[in-house]
Specification:
Layout: E1 3-6, E2 11-14, E3 18-19, H1 32-44, E4 49-51, H2 60-69, E5 77-82, E6 84-86, E7 92-95, H3 99-113, E8 118-123, H4 132-144, E9 148-154, H5 158-167, E10 172-176, H6 183-186, H7 189-196, E11 199-203, H8 235-255, H9 259-268, E12 274-276, H10 283-291, H11 299-308
Parallel strand pairs: 3-4, 4-5, 5-8, 8-9, 9-10, 10-11, 11-12
Antiparallel strand pairs: 1-2, 6-7
Helix pairs in contact: 1-2, 1-10, 3-4, 4-5, 5-7, 8-9
Length: about 325
């Protein structure tokens, strides 16, 4: 597995990471034994970049990841997030970025993960009630205290990113990015992080599994799956998006790879500063995703993909409530 640098502060990770969110919530039934096996397999094939958050579960995902890497900590780059506050019962308590909460959340994550230092600590969502300088300032204190190595942000807007980076160097920005979510190319987020030397971590690079061709009808989604409430999986949007994916599947068949591998190879082709973190809770899909690092797309193939998935091609918003995104 190749390595890629995130930012200019020295953070290096595998070219493809592993998103662990679905192992504990949101995407149907969970199986912790299979999830831990998936994490171990990821490490075996060279994927060392694991992504979690305190909000996933809530809290269960950090504990799961902590158990999985307990005996392999030296070979793992652990990334977690704070800011999307939730109760133990799952109640959503809003976005928090006040310094006291930053310190409290970090200590709690360290305990759940069973580590003494978090490699990459993200602000999950921007708290518009707190100046970003105060939030990042508190995160910088965690770096000086040795509790965190590098700082990151998620779903932040260009001006907020600039102000944050001026307070303390930001190593990575995490935002949704895939063939059907190319907003960052149009809203100056990608150009801003590149200007500042900040790495880009692409979450949901498989379009929440849709670009892998795993869903053909709304009924294919488990009953308790978050995607049932996602506009892109509903009504006419679903069928129009299926028509787009069909072309990716044809290309995959011609190259003797999977549609998901085409989608990941496209994200990888966007630049050496881009690291996709496809999520999965199954060893089989993990191995397919890892193999995407070896898929090369020719200029002709990239142009063909572009003709099908130009900017804004997907039908439907990526979240039901987009108001909380890109502050």
């Amino acid at each position: 597995m190749q390595k890629r640098a995130l930012g200019r502060q020295g953070l290096t990770v595998s070219a493809i990471g592993l998103g662990c969110m679905g192992m504990s919530e949101f995407y149907g039934p969970v199986d912790e034994k299979e999830s831990i096996a998936t994490i171990h397999r990821a490490l075996d094939v060279g994927i060392d970049f694991l992504d979690t958050a305190d909000a996933y579960g809530p809290f269960r995902n950090e504990r799961l990841v902590g158990r999985a890497v307990r005996d392999r900590r030296d070979g793992v780059v652990l990334a977690t997030k704070f800011g999307s506050a939730r109760s133990e019962t799952g109640e959503r308590l809003g976005i928090r970025g006040d310094p006291a909460y930053v310190r409290q959340a970090c200590d709690a994550s360290l305990a759940r993960l069973g580590v003494d230092c978090i490699d990459l600590y993200y602000q999950h969502r921007v708290d518009t009630k707190v100046p970003i300088e105060e939030t990042i300032g508190a995160m910088a204190e965690l770096v000086r205290a040795g509790k965190v190595r590098y700082l990151g942000m998620s779903e932040a807007a260009p001006e907020t990113i600039r102000r944050a980076h001026a307070t303390h160097p930001i190593s990575a920005l995490q935002t949704e990015y895939s063939l059907w979510t190319r907003d960052v190319e149009a809203n100056d987020v990608l150009s801003t992080v590149r200007e500042l030397g900040i790495g880009f971590v692409a979450y949901s690079p498989l379009g929440r599994g849709f670009l892998a061709g795993r869903f053909k009808t709304f009924g294919d989604l488990p009953a308790n799956d978050f995607r049932r409430g996602n506009p892109r999986f509903q009504g006419e949007n679903l069928q129009k998006n299926l028509d787009l994916v069909a072309e990716v599947e044809r290309m995959a068949h011609e190259k003797d790879v999977t549609a998901g591998q085409i989608a990941l190879a496209w994200v990888l082709s966007r630049g050496d500063d881009v690291v996709p973190i496809p999520g999965t809770k199954h060893v089989e899909y993990l191995e397919q995703n890892a193999a995407a690092a070896d898929v090369r797309l020719s200029r002709e193939e990239l142009d063909r993909i572009e003709s099908v998935f130009p900017l804004g091609a997907a039908h439907g918003m990526r979240y039901a409530d987009m108001a909380a995104i890109h502050k």
